[in-house]
Amino acid sequence: MAPSQRREPSPPSAPPLRLQKHGGIFTAVNPSDWLRHWRHPNHLMLAVPWPGFFGLIGAGYLLLNLLFALLYWLDPRGIAGVAGETTSFAEAFFFSVQTLGSIGYGAFHPASLFTHLVVTVESLLGLIVIALMTGMAFSRFSRSTARILFSEVATVHNYDGLPTLMFRLANERRKTILEATVQAYLAIDERTTEGHRMRRLHPLVLNRDRSPLFLLTWTLMHPIDDRSPLRGRTPRDLAAGEAEILVSFRGIDATLERPIYAHHHLPASRVLFGEGFVDMMQEEEGQGQRIDFANFNRTHPCPCASAA
């Protein structure tokens, strides 16, 4: 082949991707995706639940001590103060535990140059490991969590003469959230005029999408007017397009003064046409009004005009 016709070798192809659907949005997932977490240990330690966090710390601590116990065990007479003439594996393991934690009871101590060198390395590594674990634990404790409760269903019924989509939010912490903002979208499969199928996100304009103070509950309303992407869509249309209502919440924790985020999705099967939420404000004789959270997800039949 002539030099002008020589072709450069193609770069190695990326591992195949498959698609998974999460809350109305398709995301690319690698079959070996779990390896990504081990390449980013900081993300893994922040993402796993608390039992997994302590489990990973315990497993790492055990493996590290087993590794150094094997190194100490290579020199049978490298540790003084052992029960026998040579060091057993159990004694090497507990000597490693004492060295890594800078405990030093005085019974075991290094007796050879090799053991002294291993102790030096383990002591330095112990300082680094303790600093890393302390930083990760502090990051988890100081991280803000939203604790926002979303209603299990959304309703569509008449409100001020218009069909209106409604859903509820509740602040589970019962502590003030500042500058709360909510955004809602309709995710639905659509086809272009050329026949291409696409997953589209249409913004749903809310009557009130901001609140300077959010303490207890909040009912969000989207009027289905001429500008609404829900206009003219029947429950059958929404089901055929695998429609979902995507909700995004953000605010500032008044106690920690840090931003908090939450999100939720409601499939078309949970959008109830001709239903309305039961009022959460209850009158009690001699006690005024109180909020009944038992009615948070309860609905009742309510007139709904056609959205066509």
From TrEMBL:
It is a multi-pass membrane protein. The chain crosses the membrane at residues 53-74, 86-108, 114-138. Its main location: membrane. Keywords: Ion channel, Ion transport, Membrane, Potassium, Potassium transport, Transmembrane, Transmembrane helix, Transport, Voltage-gated channel. The keyword NADP does not apply. InterPro entries: Ig_E-set, IRK_C, K_chnl_dom, K_chnl_inward-rec_Kir, K_chnl_inward-rec_Kir_cyto. Residues 148-303 form the Inward rectifier potassium channel C-terminal domain. Residues 66-140 form the Potassium channel domain. Pfam families: Ion_trans_2, IRK_C. It is found in: Membrane. Coiled coil: none annotated. This is Potassium transporter. It comes from Aphanothece cf. minutissima CCALA 015.
